[in-house]
Amino acid sequence: MEKENLSQKLVFTATALVGYVALIAAARRWYLQWGATADEIAQPLPGDELMDHASANHAITIQAPVQAVWPWLKQIGQDKAGFYSYSFLENLVAADIHNTNRVVPEWQHLKAGDTIRLASKKVYGDKPLLPVVALEENHYLVLKGWGAFVLKPLDSHTSRLLIRSHGRRYGWGMRLLLFLLLDPIHFLMERRMLIGLKERAERAWQQDT
């Protein structure tokens, strides 16, 4: 009986694993390009020279002008506004992230050469620091180790925000880990970040107009 139960568990586990791999493979193109148009995926962006390839292109339309969206993007960081994503998931790994629902003037002085912190200094030290390699007000922010955040106006009251994540060349083991786990997690968190930023920027813009 014990052998039979063990056999059933192994079959169930193997079936679940095969199903998960099949689901990830089928959805991969969708979640690596979520929200982005073919033209956006093909166009060159600031910071492309830093990557071996684009690992993902995610985009969203925001019903607010670029100058109303930019301050929210400019203040991202663990020690500032957070990342507007699932902080409860981020804090499962002791990242100590708390999302902010307002623009803070003291956090609006970001410039090239500064760094953005991804997780708690107390827990992780200075390892999770991403250098700001390029920045143009109301247009783009490029982070080494993440990618390019690019804002473009669609009209006087509508913006488009595209995040192009920079990929690197890895060995087969890391590529497998990216395929099975890290890329889907990155999509989940970055999608929520885009939606969270959109919600905040649109709400603030509507209140101001």
UniProtKB/TrEMBL annotation:
<keyword id="KW-0812">Transmembrane</keyword>
<keyword id="KW-1133">Transmembrane helix</keyword>
<protein>
    <recommendedName>
        <fullName>SRPBCC family protein</fullName>
    </recommendedName>
</protein>
<keyword id="KW-0472">Membrane</keyword>
<feature type="transmembrane region" description="Helical">
    <location>
        <begin position="6"/>
        <end position="27"/>
    </location>
</feature>
